[in-house]
Input
Amino acid sequence: MPETPATQSHENSRFSGGERAGEHASSPAAAWILAVTLAVVPMSGIPGEWVLQDTLKSALLAFGVIGAALAFVCSKLQTQETGAIRVHGLLLFPAVLSAYALGSMAWSHSYLAGVEACRWALLGLLLWLTLQILNRKTLPVLLGGIHLGAVGASVWAAAQFWGDLDWFPQVAVPASTFANRNFFAEYLICTLPLSAYLLVQLKAPLWRQLMALSLAFNIVALMMTGTRSALVTAGLVLPIVAFGLWRFRHALVVRRWSRGSKLSVATVLVAGLLGLGALPTANRTLLAEGPAVSPLERSLLRAGSVARKAEYTTGSFSVRASMWRSTARMMMAHPWTGVGAGAWEVHIPLYQGWNNSLETDFYAHNEFLQLLGEYGLLVGGGTLAVLLAYLILSAQRVWLSPVRGHAGQQAALQAMALCSLLGLFLVSNAGFPWRLASSGAMLVVSLAIVGWTTARPGRPWAQRSWKLALTVWGVALLFSVWVSVLGMRAEQCIVRSVQTLNRLVSEPDMPAAQREALQIEAFALLKEGVAIHPHYRKLTSIAADQFAVTGNLEAALWAQESVAASRPYIPDVHANRVLLNSGLKKPAEAQAAFDALRSLQPDAPRTRALGILLLRRAGQDDQAALQLKRHFDNGKVEYDLVRFALAIGLETRDEALTVQAYRLWTQGWPAESVAQTDALELAPKEWRNRMLKH
Output
């Protein structure tokens, strides 16, 4: 159908809000600031390691949301239109979680709980602000900002995939400006439904093909990551997106496109997917990973790998499954109140086995389990149940909405927001996207779109108190920005310390005077960073390990003690404290560290080995020999214990212990034949026949 002035006039109303009378609640300046924020946050990164990528993104999001809120407040004060302030029950979701986090500061890890309170306060303000500014004029601005952010982030990913760009340090490529390609993929999956809606609502013919190409480009960027959870999710969500747009097609602008325009857009979309998806990678890391060299090949092979049995026994899924089981044990131990907001990483070592300590630095890799583990069934479970029930009812309402006219346009938009949330919730079962700035923002913006048409003006008391409440909230968020700045400074100091230590490790022939100066500088930077942020376990642990590698045991011990003060239940930390204190000839401190380790893992092989080590260094070889014999009698035949027994037996001339240890060694570790021959040569001749006798 050709486009006419009458058609275009009808198109201008396509973004109408739920209540035309309340459209003056919007602030164009606030909408533009928020749109720019949603575009800048995902495409911004640090070309270096002086601060973590998501710390930068979180700070930018906080600044942008607060700036948009201030613009909205100024607009309201100028117009004196307080009667149009919208409220919605969805606002209780972040408010309740933020209030619980504040309360848990009194009995749980106060710092981590405070961080959680600030995070939910920021997301709550973003949700409230989005509800206020949404109308037919601001909606395309916000959707344009979301799509532009996704395209910008995808450009960086494509530069890494096709051009081997390495500006942004990351764990796994291509991750765009994110620290991990999983984080990028989880964000990108949330944007695709809203980008598709923006495409079918374009009225300018010249922009349709470019928009279709950019949407295809974003999908190809998702394929580049090879993130299996996101790829499987895309396979489930994108057909629902296509069906939803088809269902409401009579209410959308695409119905009024000419046949040639529809054909050209479809051709560009398909050709973009196939053409861009077939271009091979030039990234050396990805070429070394396997035979898949194009985005299409990579996505198919990676998605198909979920059917391999090894993935569930030794692959990444098995690691995640172990964390989920540990989280389930945590939930059963603290079913109603949880362990406290943000305290998962503090308590999770208590619920892991001695051989199951992988990824304790990270999150549970399941947002729902972690929410229940930290917030408990009463707050976390109740809030989550209400949210899911609301979304299910909203999906039913959208499904039953008229498919034509203004109501159909609203239903189509909300259907796409629900698809965005569905994609986010699916990948949240194997990751932690709510805790990252870009995908966390997508969570609440999508919620705001779903609840937009059912938001209503607040009651009179709410209208009178909104300024005070917003002021209090603004003060709290300004405090969170200040904390973010301090956090970035702390990260910079600790990361510079680690980089200095890395230089010492990589240049072993460095002059002694220069090495000493760099050691002093690295330790000063570490202490400065820890003084600002005493709970930065991830980076401080890396510095501790590097200090130990460079031989600075005092600095390594100081760093480990700092970590232990913040995270008292990590066995690895206490084991390192035992070794460092023992190496520095501090027997009392080493014994105290060993007691802490033994209280956490009384029956672990490492605990037994360190116990023998402390007895040896205290000159109590006779006690060590007795304990070793007791361990062997109880079936505790472990490599370190056997080597200790052989050494003690040879040194103390204990023939029985030496013979037993040597036989256990040859039976359990026959591949070490050369070392066993050397040990045999050290034994007296009269022992050798008995040592070789089986």
The first helix runs from residue 5 to 11.
